[in-house]
Design goal:
single chain; 211 residues; 7 helices; elongated; disordered N terminus
């Protein structure tokens, strides 16, 4: 879901940087007076400057923001899994894709049920780190030719995705105010870690995309 990794291996780092800004707990990191950040491949893919980059504290994630971001991430990975289930050729990759569909659907349902019980209306933050990158992943998977190259592309994305989602879960747990929401995130983290471990094992077996 998050960047055309086979063409730009810096995308996962860029997304993690965006997540850090989005989940900031109000700590300042001002730039030196008059100093402009150097232009890099990461900054070229980043959104407009946030409060942290301009010397102001980035807004803390609310529980409504956290619920919305995690729901969006689960939906995106489930959708990517559905595409990979149909397009992958490796039986192991197909099985992994089916697992992503079922597990992330279950995680999404749990989040929606909790939000309903708590009467929390999901609200994405202004700096949403998931939407555009999810669209980029789907575009990459749709354009990849069916066969071993697609399998490698999908698994490489899944490694990067689950590292980033695990980071988002950690930061969301820190920012969450409601104890039930914290508990749900804590329950989800081992599932995400298990997915990451499985994806990394598949990546070792399949190798990385050649394109």
């Amino acid at each position: 879901m998050f960047g055309v990794l086979r063409r730009n291996p810096l995308v996962p780092a860029a997304w993690l940087g965006i997540l850090t800004l989005a989940a900031c707990s109000g700590r300042d990191r001002p730039e030196a007076a008059g100093e402009a950040p150097a232009a890099t491949a990461d900054t070229a893919m980043s959104p407009a400057p946030t409060g942290t980059e301009t010397g102001q504290a980035a807004p803390r994630l609310t529980d409504a923001n956290i619920v919305a971001l995690l729901d969006e991430a689960n939906a995106a990975d489930s959708t990517a899994g559905a595409l990979a289930r149909d397009k992958a050729t490796s039986p192991e990759v197909k099985d992994f894709a089916k697992l992503m569909m079922s597990d992330h659907h279950a995680l999404r349902l749990q989040g929606q049920q909790l939000a309903k019980r708590l009467k929390v209306t999901p609200e994405l933050p202004a700096n949403d780190p998931v939407k555009s990158l999810a669209e980029q992943e789907m575009a990459a998977l749709q354009s990849a030719a069916k066969g071993p190259e697609f399998d490698r592309t999908y698994i490489e994305h899944e490694v990067a995705v689950h590292k980033a989602v695990l980071d988002l879960a950690e930061q969301s747990h820190e920012a969450a105010q409601n104890e039930q929401l914290k508990a749900l995130i804590e329950k989800a983290k081992p599932v995400i870690q298990k997915h990451l471990d499985q994806a990394e094992k598949l990546q070792e077996k399949l190798g990385k995309p050649t394109a």
